[in-house]
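Exam revision sheet. Question 4 asks you to relate a sequence to its structure. Input first:
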Amino acid sequence: MSLIRVVRTAAANLTRVFYVDETPTDAGGAVTVAVTRAADGTVVTSGAATHGATGTYSFVLPSQTNLDWLDVAWTGTLGGGIVTLTDRVEIVGGFHFGIAEARASDPSLANTTTYPTSAIVARRIEVEDDCERICRQAFVPRYWRETLSGNGGDRIGVRWPWLRALRSVTVSGVAWSTPTVAAVGLSESGMLTLPTGSIWPAGGSNIVVEYEHGLDRPPGRVAGAGMSHLRHLLNEPRSGIPDRLATYSNEAGTLHATVMAVADKDHTGYQEIDAVYHRYRRDRRPVVA
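Answer key, structure tokens:
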């Protein structure tokens, strides 16, 4: 399953290639497409895909009003059997930086043969995911669905800060009404607060919430660090010297590494990028007993 990010209100031309082993292969007959909400399976749109090059099919996803996660199922007949391939589409409020902006950040990236748009788009997803995981906050509006355990109090914390909207609440399988959901208070820190006299019923994984979160746009330093991160990722396979090598020497044709920056869940391994990301790193969500 591949991940595709699409800006809210923008139509998107989705593509899928059907393979037999490593060879693109046409399906026997039409390929149909069904787009559903990942959260509950609600049908968003469906239709027949358009055939292009061998094994390649496309489908236009209409513009979407809400931030969301969508599943796109491509179904066709291949080798005499029915095959369904699925992609995940995330409807987002924006990107950390644009493709043209990324190319303009380094003259070498202007070469569309060496750096095709598809490669930049794929690496940008990695950059955004790394940045937001390390910083513990989203820098553009995003949708999230989360399962929580009720604590018997009037407040409960969610994973992400900068809450923008609470879309739904389900407790022990029962969905709350629109007015009840609207009465829940939202905080910058990621806290959901109920009106006086109400509580989040105690229980294990008994609450499911859907919400929107994130800033309107990333600070300039974060976007700049993201474009630097993108360049590193795009060039990693091309360089004989790892970019994460802080110091090195070359003696008689032998490379001696003296310091290798660490890459883990809290670090990219590129020191100048980590310095920026950690400047914008938030504390973990508050815990309410």
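Marking note for examiners. The chain has three domains: 3-92, 93-137+217-240+266-289, 142-213.
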